[in-house]
Write a structure and sequence with these properties.
alpha/beta; D-Maltodextrin-Binding Protein, domain 2; 8-stranded mixed sheet; elongated; disordered N terminus
């Protein structure tokens, strides 16, 4: 009770300072975003760009964390202002708002025996070596939940939290991986990688934005509102569809 009362006093003090500085009308300051995978930068880059274009007085930074738990801990400790993670997220201190759904698919190199096929069976995948994200990463968590659900145990060749490294090792034939379609869109289009769906299975997940449920400075509020405003555009990008009528400008290179 005493801690909650102290937090309310601090929040009211911060709110008063912001009003006196005029920040509630023109967002100023910084927003530090975090996620347990670098891959999410590819999806959010147009959104970050559009926010910085419309909010020139707010500085935006992004960093990858070691795990979803670390992302949550960073927001709670004040090291990060917002975070992105796949659901479920359990923390009464956080405001958790769902953004979009995506689906993980099997990814193989262009010369792999599975390449060129739309589907692969679970048994075919389990016969391969996997290049996976490290444990605690949101994509790895979804991967582990899937294999636990189907009763399979993937043979792990390599683990890394570097998305580019994982894709490069898959391309060179060191193993296969499970990645969302938007994370390998360019490589599939260029013919470097092939993506297959898993026959009889859908590895879908929900991705949310996280922030403190208590007082948020104007810069954080503006960023969260901007992201939520563009949920439909994010879903379209996650689905690989063209984006129209949104504040997000898709990267013309993608």
């Amino acid at each position: 009770m005493a801690l909650d009362h102290a937090r309310r006093i601090l929040d009211e003090s911060d709110s008063l300072k912001e009003r006196l500085a005029g920040g509630e009308h023109t967002p100023v300051g910084r927003v530090r975003a975090a996620a347990a995978t670098q891959a999410i930068v590819h999806l959010f880059a147009p959104l970050f760009e559009s926010f910085m274009r419309t909010h020139p007085w707010v500085e935006v930074s992004f960093r990858s964390t070691a795990s979803t738990d670390q992302t949550i801990a960073d927001i709670q400790s004040g090291t990060a202002d917002v975070g992105f993670a796949s659901l479920p997220v359990y923390s009464p201190a956080l405001q958790v708002q769902e953004l979009f759904h995506d689906e993980l698919g099997a990814v193989a190199g262009h010369s792999h025996s599975l390449a060129g096929r739309p589907l692969a069976t679970l048994d075919e995948l389990l016969a391969e070596r996997f290049i996976l994200f490290e444990r605690g990463n949101s994509i790895r968590r979804a991967t582990d939940e899937f294999f636990g659900r189907v009763g399979g145990e993937p043979r792990t060749a390599l683990e890394s939290n570097d998305t580019a490294f994982i894709k490069l090792m898959v391309e060179r034939g060191f193993g296969i991986s499970l990645l969302p379609a938007w994370a390998v869109r360019d490589e599939v289009r260029w013919g470097w990688l092939a993506q297959l769906r898993i026959k009889g299975h859908h590895l879908r997940r929900a991705v949310a934005i996280l922030a403190l449920g208590r007082f948020q400075p104007s810069s954080t509020r503006a960023f969260v509102q901007h992201v939520l405003k563009n949920r439909d555009a994010l879903q379209s990008m996650a689905d690989g569809e063209p984006v129209e009528g949104a504040d997000v400008r898709p990267d013309p290179r993608r």
